[in-house]
Write a structure and sequence with these properties.
The protein is an alpha/beta fold. The protein has helices spanning 4-18, 27-52, 57-64, 77-82, 89-103, 105-108, 120-123, 126-140, 158-162, 167-194, 205-215, 232-238, 255-267, 351-360, 375-378, 382-392, 455-467, 480-485, 507-534; strands at residues 222-225, 247-252, 274-277, 296-302, 362-373, 396-401, 414-420, 428-432, 475-478. The protein has a nine-stranded mixed beta sheet with strand order 3-2-1-4-5-7-6-8-9, sandwiched between helices. Helix 1 packs across helix 2 and helix 11 (205-215) crosses helix 12. It starts with a helix and ends with a helix.
């Protein structure tokens, strides 16, 4: 039986195969599609075998058409594996993946055509490339991803994982959970390898859980991530409820991440997720029948931190600074959706541009949980005016300070901003989870490379969010008047006092200790002089 560990090991073998040939940030682009084809091939084989128990001949072929997806003859992982020594294996892999995509276009459009397995620029000369692709296929060949072959944990049944679903759907849902968990685990591992480039597609699982529990998506609601990356944050939010009862929307500007998000959704048995490709600010893809922004009940996002040139998509004429050229300046009037009427964020920092887009996309009782750098809390000029308007409109609900070195790609501390419409109160909750608790222990797990939040730290943050109760050094509920007195500066230390008074220094004791040390040094030097004379030195 295949375990989650087996899947993780196969993915890691694939990464090792690519080591020294391509940049670590690109491992995911080549490894995950191969595993995805293996998953589709094994699942299709399993489904056809089940049908064969009841049908044969023409009736069997007819029933195959009703399966959720198809893998045409000659395109399966097994077909590719049999041809792994072919001189044109890169072309064969490209052709098979594009055929699978074409045959399942409604669900898999753009998922398997984002990477060129026949590229000598990426994978080296023909001989080197062929050897790598052969090894990559061999890395996954022993992995059996048929639903009937996935191991169920001892004492656990599929219903424990996916809730009130009956029959075969129960088994498939559990399998999706096992494979999906392994898939997301490896996205995290690839993020670790990718370093600075990881921030564009991965949100740490602990942060995703906090945000999912805060927005608390309910059945029948629409959940949206305007910078969805690999889709893990969206999935975490949707899985708070049965994902089949939630409408999922995500947009992403990076084509590789779009493909990864679609694979991620598919593996998690989320077949109706809508993942759009494009610049969310300049060209939002989700609009209503009247051409206005589609509204969402819950929005989660780990947006690009302080994105430079965020408004370049609003500059169709390509105006720029330079001799004889007019310098482009973003103005609120250039946005037909009126997202920047409260202020236009600075050209070099797009944080509030994304936040204003989310606010404009909120339904009447919508809520947002978004990761942002601390600069959004205190930077002045246009950002200060936007911040004031957001507070005056009673949209800001909570500011949560997170520990430093928590996110891949940056060591700076970040925060989670929570916005809500139709709030019953006007206060703002401030939580500082970046320091120590009352016992002096860090509110996070310190690690060499990347700090982490344990389950007890996650629970503490979420409990503080729901209780909205004062906790010295951790939680403060600020009134509107208090924020006004601070001139709408939301820097967390202004509201949560985490200052630890240092112990009073006893000057007399310090002087006595210095005198004692001087005496000991003098005695040691005198002894050293005696020893040196005895040695004739």
């Amino acid at each position: 039986m295949t375990t989650k560990k087996d899947i993780e090991s196969a993915l890691m073998r694939g990464a090792d195969t690519l080591r020294d040939t391509i940049d670590a940030a690109n491992y995911k682009d080549y490894v995950l599609p191969v595993m995805f084809v293996k998953y589709l091939s094994d699942s299709y084989t399993d489904a056809v075998e089940e049908l064969s128990k009841q049908y044969s001949g023409i009736r069997l072929e007819r029933q195959k058409k009703y399966l959720p997806f198809m893998v045409a003859e000659g395109c399966s992982f097994y077909d590719l594996y049999q041809q792994r020594f072919a001189d044109n294996i890169g072309q064969l892999m490209n052709a098979a993946m594009r055929q699978i995509e074409a045959d399942n276009n409604q669900q898999l459009a753009g998922v398997l055509s984002a990477v060129d397995y026949n590229s000598e620029n990426a994978l080296g000369t023909r001989e080197h490339k062929n050897a790598i692709l052969r090894d990559l296929l061999e890395d996954f060949e022993p992995l059996d991803l048929r639903p009937s072959a996935i191991e169920v944990k001892e004492g656990q049944v599929p219903a424990d994982v996916i809730g009130d679903i009956n029959g075969a759907d129960m088994l498939y849902g559990f399998v999706a959970g096992v494979i999906g968990d392994a898939y997301e685990y490896m996205i995290g591992q690839f993020a670790s390898m990718a370093g600075k480039k990881a921030g564009s597609f991965y949100t740490p699982a602990a942060v995703s859980e906090i945000m999912a529990r805060i927005v608390d998506v309910q059945p029948g609601e629409r959940v949206y991530d305007p910078t969805c990356g690999s889709g893990s944050l969206l999935i975490k939010a949707a899985k708070k409820q049965n994902s089949k009862e939630v409408s999922i929307y995500g947009q992403e500007v990076n084509g590789s991440s779009v493909a990864m998000a679609k694979m991620n959704m598919y593996i998690h048995e989320i077949r109706d997720a809508k993942i759009g490709w494009g610049d969310t600010l300049a060209n939002p893809v989700f609009l209503d029948a009247d051409g206005n922004l589609l509204l969402f009940d819950a929005i989660v996002a780990n947006m690009p931190f302080s994105k430079d040139k965020w408004a370049s998509g609003f500059n169709p004429g390509g105006e720029s600074s330079g001799k004889g050229k007019k310098e482009f300046k973003m103005e609120a009037s250039l946005d037909k959706f009126h997202r920047f009427d409260w202020g236009v964020p600075p050209a070099s920092k797009g944080d509030w541009a994304f936040l204003l887009h989310m606010i404009a996309s909120l339904s009447v009782n919508g809520r947002i949980a978004a990761v942002a750098p601390h600069g959004v809390l205190f930077r002045g000029a246009a950002e200060g005016r936007i911040r004031q308007r957001v507070v005056e409109e009673n949209l800001l609900d909570t500011v949560i300070g997170l520990p430093e070195n928590l996110f891949y790609g940056t060591s700076i501390p970040a925060c989670i901003l929570v916005f809500k419409k139709n709030r019953p109160t006007t206060d703002v909750l401030f939580i500082d989870a970046s320091k120590t608790d009352e016992a002096g222990n860090p509110r996070y797990i310190k690690a060499t490379n990347q700090n982490e939040l344990g389950q007890e730290h996650i629970d503490a943050i979420v409990d503080a969010y729901h209780s909205r109760t004062e906790q010295p050094g951790f939680v403060h509920v600020a009134t509107r008047e208090e924020i006004q007195k601070n001139e709408y500066n939301l820097n967390i230390p202004r509201y949560v006092d985490t200052f630890e008074e240092e112990e009073v220094v006893d000057i007399a004791a310090v002087q006595a200790n210095i005198a004692r040390l001087k005496q000991e040094i003098a005695e040691a030097e005198a002894k050293m002089d005696v020893y040196l004379k005895e040695l004739g030195l």
